[in-house]
Design a protein that fits this description.
This protein has 204 residues and is an alpha/beta fold. 43% of the residues lie in helices and 15% in strands. Strands 3-4-5-6-7 form a 5-stranded parallel sheet, with helices on one face. The chain has a two-stranded antiparallel ribbon with strand order 1-2. It is globular, with a radius of gyration of 18 Å.
Length: 204
């Protein structure tokens, strides 16, 4: 496939266009089955909800593409998916994909970016300070951020560093009491914010 991108780019573009048309048709059929009476929909992976066509999009093969190849062979088709969707979130999977972030941020129709570090390979989790600059960069481009693999203890330092607006946090608690304690701390720490809930990145 990678050799074909260099030797037969027109064929690759034709096939990518065909795949996108199938993807859109398939999603439309699913959306008509699952949408509620107001047109809202969920996307189970990463706990997404949005008041319209909502989905996570991704291009994990981008870990093996140069930024120039990603711009040519991925961005146009990701943009097409985002234009079709009402609410879209890109799954940025691993440090090898970070070089493509500028191209992703250039997609005006993209609403949010989720970051998955390779914790299984020893990389720090999503709440680590190492990623705060990247989260600020995403938010400064007008997009929301979903943070995964974050411990409850990292949430307030993260919000202090990058701000709570536009942040969708997926964390785990050992007990209901631990969750209630953190919620109270967040409400005290950010008194001008609505009580912290499991918000979608499209509603914050």
């Amino acid at each position: 496939m990678f050799a074909d991108m260099k030797e037969m780019p027109e064929l690759i573009h034709m096939r990518l266009h065909e795949i996108n048309q199938v993807w859109i048709k398939s999603y439309d059929e699913i959306y008509n089955l699952i949408k509620d009476e107001e047109g809202a929909a969920t996307f189970w992976a990463f706990s997404l909800w949005g008041p319209g066509r909502t989905a996570k999009i991704q291009c994990d093969v981008s870990a093996m593409l140069s930024p120039a190849m990603f711009k040519e062979f991925a961005v146009p088709y990701l943009r097409e998916q985002c234009r079709y969707l009402d609410y879209s979130m890109f799954h940025l999977d691993g440090t090898q994909c970070i070089p493509h972030l500028d191209h992703l941020l250039s997609i005006g129709e993209l609403d949010a970016i989720e970051w998955t570090p390779q914790t299984c390979a020893g990389k720090p989790g999503g709440g680590a300070e190492a990623w705060h600059d990247m989260y600020r960069r995403i938010k400064n481009a007008g997009k929301s951020v979903q943070v995964v693999n974050i411990s409850p203890a990292e949430i307030i330092p993260l919000f202090d560093s990058v701000g709570p607006d536009g942040m969708f946090i997926l964390t785990q608690f050992k007990s209901k009491e631990e969750a209630e304690t953190l919620t109270a701390e967040l409400e005290k720490h950010f008194p001008n914010k609505t009580a912290v809930q499991n918000f979608s990145p499209f509603t914050v």
